[in-house]
């Protein structure tokens, strides 16, 4: 790979319309998994001006069985959706948590899909769909994530914290960031461009108020990025269109699953194309992508490589993966094929079947709404949350080689 280059990644805030949709979909996933750990959920969300629409397929004991809703279940779903939008902070004329129109179009899971996924007789539980999933890790940041994406996320997380605390009352929920870094010998050495577009209160697009907003954003960037990456040569583009008062679902429609590169590695690694949010962990789009990240991160954490990409492939209704591919991009201390063999030797991974993935990582729990903003990877594993970020497999990998 090239040793000297520019690379860019973007992030979007929790108030971005697509991220509002993701968080709503995962609020539904958490609601159902909290009632039935074996629930099946595929929930898509549409958000637009004063409207939220749910669509998809479910199966959940005590909530939706035999094509009928339990008493009060639909009210509980609506309450979870409105609570999510309230937490994000939308109390605007064009999108208000209390007054938007709500439609629930969830219905029963296809029996033909269910028969392929469910275990029966001598048949192990199969994958919920066909597809390819990727995991990635690199040593650019302490969390073993690409630096451009890591800093893009952190800028928006800080701004959201300041908005919620009242430290930056001029901020509104919708925002985007973008960080361009210059790399030398594969390591980030300078930030060449920072882009931040943030929804704002009235008047913060001109005069002293605009200057206040710009100064605030530059201070956030200075607090987040290492000082050695910033210089007088760093270009800033803050609200480059001028005004950004109308935002969120009122400014642009949002859909679940449209920010899959933000959710993963910021373009620094391949993506199989499947979104995560709104899906229970039988869907390998989600669970296999999580185990692939877990494997890649542990390979780097074990010192077996500085950079690692993992690919897994599955067929619907089939339990065993069709393929496992490891690429350490020439940074490995052992052969990539040896790492592949070692992974399949580790008994606790159970051959990377959908059920063994969920069991090893503990995925049949209501842990997903936290993943739906600021990335599914590079987060801190804490309690039941983000278990795929643990590095507890590193010693097993070394022992298996």
Describe the overall structure:
The protein is 32% helix and 24% strand. The strands form 5 sheets. The protein has a 4-stranded mixed beta sheet with strand order 1-10-11-12, with helices on one face. The longest helix has 19 residues, at 17-35. The chain has 11 helices and 15 strands. The chain has 401 residues and is an alpha+beta fold. It has helices spanning 17-35, 73-88, 111-117, 147-165, 207-224, 248-251, 260-263, 284-301, 336-345, 354-361, 394-400, and strands at residues 4-12, 40-48, 51-59, 64-65, 68-69, 91-92, 95-96, 101-108, 131-138, 171-184, 187-200, 235-238, 254-255, 307-314, 323-327. The mean pLDDT is 95. The protein is flat and about 65 Å long.
Helix content: 25-40%
Separation, N- and C-terminal Cα atoms: 26 Å
What is the number of helical segments per DSSP (H or I, 4+ residues)?
11
Name the poorly predicted regions: none
Nearest-integer average pLDDT: 95
Neighbour order of strands in the largest sheet: 1-10-11-12
User: Which shape, going by the Cα principal axes?
Assistant: flat
Give the tally of β-strands: 15
Query: What value does the Rg take, in angstroms?
Result: 22 Å
Secondary-structure element sequence?
A: EHEEEEHEEEHEHEEHEHEHHEEHHH
Strand-residue fraction? Answer: 15-25%
Assembly classification: single chain
Structural class: alpha+beta
What summary fits the major beta sheet?
4 strands, mixed
Describe the secondary structure blueprint for this structure:
Layout lengths: L3 E9 L4 H19 L4 E9 L2 E9 L4 E2 L2 E2 L3 H16 L2 E2 L2 E2 L4 E8 L2 H7 L13 E8 L8 H19 L5 E14 L2 E14 L6 H18 L10 E4 L9 H4 L2 E2 L4 H4 L20 H18 L5 E8 L8 E5 L8 H10 L8 H8 L32 H7 L1
Parallel strand pairs: 3-8, 11-12
Antiparallel strand pairs: 1-10, 2-3, 2-13, 4-5, 6-7, 9-14, 10-11, 14-15
């Amino acid at each position: 790979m090239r040793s000297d280059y520019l690379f860019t990644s973007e992030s979007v805030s929790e108030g971005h319309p697509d991220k509002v949709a993701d968080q709503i979909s995962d609020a539904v996933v958490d609601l159902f998994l909290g009632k039935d750990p074996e629930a099946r959920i595929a929930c898509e969300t549409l958000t637009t001006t004063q409207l939220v629409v749910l669509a998809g397929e479910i199966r959940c004991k005590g909530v939706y069985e035999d094509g009928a809703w339990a008493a009060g279940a639909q009210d509980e779903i609506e309450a979870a959706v409105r609570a999510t939008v309230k937490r994000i902070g939308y109390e605007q004329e064009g999108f208000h948590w209390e007054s938007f129109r709500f439609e629930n179009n969830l219905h029963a899971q296809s029996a033909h899909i269910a028969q392929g996924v469910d275990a029966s007789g001598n048949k192990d539980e199969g994958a919920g769909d066909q597809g390819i999933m990727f995991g990635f890790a690199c040593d650019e940041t302490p969390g073993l994530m690409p630096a451009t994406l890591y800093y893009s996320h952190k800028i928006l997380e800080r701004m959201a914290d300041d908005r919620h605390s009242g430290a930056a009352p001029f901020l509104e929920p919708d925002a985007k960031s973008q960080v361009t870094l210059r790399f030398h010998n594969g390591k980030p050495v300078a930030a060449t461009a920072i882009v931040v577009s943030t929804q704002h209160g009235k008047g913060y697009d001109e005069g002293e108020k605009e200057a206040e907003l710009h100064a605030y954003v530059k201070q956030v960037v200075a607090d987040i990025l290492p000082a050695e990456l910033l210089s007088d040569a760093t270009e800033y583009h803050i609200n480059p269109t001028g005004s950004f008062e109308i935002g969120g679902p009122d400014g642009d429609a949002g859909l679940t699953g449209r920010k899959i590169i933000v959710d993963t590695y910021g373009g620094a690694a391949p993506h199989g194309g499947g979104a995560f949010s709104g899906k229970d962990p039988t869907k390998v789009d989600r669970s296999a992508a999580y185990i692939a990240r877990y494997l890649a991160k542990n390979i780097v954490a074990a010192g077996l490589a500085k950079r690692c990409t993992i690919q897994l492939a599955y067929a619907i209704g089939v339990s065993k993966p069709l393929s496992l591919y490891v690429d350490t991009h020439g940074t490995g201390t052992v052969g990539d094929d040896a790492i592949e063999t070692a992974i399949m030797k580790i008994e606790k991974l159970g051959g990377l079947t959908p059920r063994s993935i969920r069991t090893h990582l503990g995925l049949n729990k209501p842990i997903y709404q936290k993943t739906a903003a600021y990335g599914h990877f590079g987060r801190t594993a804490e309690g039941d949350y983000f278990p795929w970020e643990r590095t507890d497999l590193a010693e097993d990998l070394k022992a298996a080689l």
